[in-house]
Amino acid sequence: MSGKRVTHGGGTYGINYNLFALSAKLHPQLAVIDGYEGMEGTGPVNGTPVAHRVCIASLDWLDADRVGAELMGVDFSKIGYLTFCAQSGDRGQSDLSEIEILGPSIKDYARTYQLPKQWEQITSWQKPMMPG
To answer: Which range of residues forms the domain containing residue 52?
Structure first.
């Protein structure tokens, strides 16, 4: 069985939990998010390009993703693996009030991206698992 099948198995809860578990061992020392052109809707291939013109760089990958979600108008608490990482307390910073922003304020560049059509499925990790 391939590692990809194991990592992506278990439905939306399973994949989010697996990514959280992997983050303990596999995490970048430097996170750079190129948001010059973002994508909304059904990305990363069939979405609509967004000329956002932002860049995020951080020594803390979790705070970079936290800021990225904020810039896109996405509720961070709906992103499973990032929420698990934030709740663990040992993966990085996710509290915006504790993240030092150099340059313009997030609110000056925040947009509201169109979410994927399958957003309800993507966020279904939050629902209690039914006994099998």
So the answer is: 3-123
Residue 38 placed within a domain: yes
φ, ψ for residue 126 (rounded to 5)? -80, -20
pTM (2 decimals)?
A: 0.86
Q: Is 64 domain-assigned?
A: yes
∠ CA 61-64-70 to the nearest 5 degrees? 145
Residue range 100-116, pLDDT digits in tens = 999 999 999 999 999 99
Residue 16 lies inside a defined structural domain of this protein:
yes
Rounded to whole angstroms, the Cα distance separating 36 from 66 reads: 17
- The answer to whether 59 and 41 have CB atoms below 8 angstroms apart is no
